[in-house]
Design goal:
- The protein is of the alpha+beta class and 131 residues long.
- It is built from five helices and five strands, in the order αββαβββααα.
- It has a five-stranded mixed beta sheet.
- A hairpin with a 3-residue loop joins strand 4 and strand 5.
- Helix 1 runs antiparallel to helix 2.
- The termini are far apart.
């Protein structure tokens, strides 16, 4: 029985002692992917090792890595499997970008010009159409 890609990713991360592994179902937020997995490594070397271990294990199981970015710097490496995207980061980088919060936001029902009105209010300008 073929293992699920998500299971392979989590197992490969755990094998190299990834920290704070989370999975986010983003099917209702984007058509680009279904799942985002985020994990942390304690050093650039560990971040690179985590990403490489996932790529190797996934390839062994018959999955294709569409792309890998950031492995030259290794503070944030993205591994793209199509339906599943993996982000492996240093804790400081992860805290700064806070992808968990960003991808948990839900679109709201505000009118399209609500952002322009909010920006005008912050700048002290009257709202659009109110001079």
């Amino acid at each position: 029985m073929k293992k699920d890609l998500h299971e392979i990713i989590i197992s490969a991360l755990e094998d190299v002692k990834a920290q704070d592994i989370i999975s986010i179902d983003v099917t209702k937020l984007t058509g680009i992917m279904d799942t985002m997995v985020i994990a942390s490594g304690n050093s650039s070397r560990q971040v690179k090792s985590l990403a490489n271990n996932v790529a190797v294990d996934a390839k062994k199981a018959g999955f294709t890595v569409i792309g890998m970015e950031g492995d030259d710097v290794s503070e944030w490496i993205l591994v793209d499997f199509g339906d599943v995207i993996l982000h492996v980061m240093l804790p400081t980088t992860r805290a700064f970008y806070d992808l968990e919060k960003l991808w948990s936001l839900r679109p709201d029902d505000r009118p399209l010009n609500a952002d322009a009105e909010a920006e005008a209010a912050m700048l002290g300008s009257p709202p659009i159409g109110q001079d």
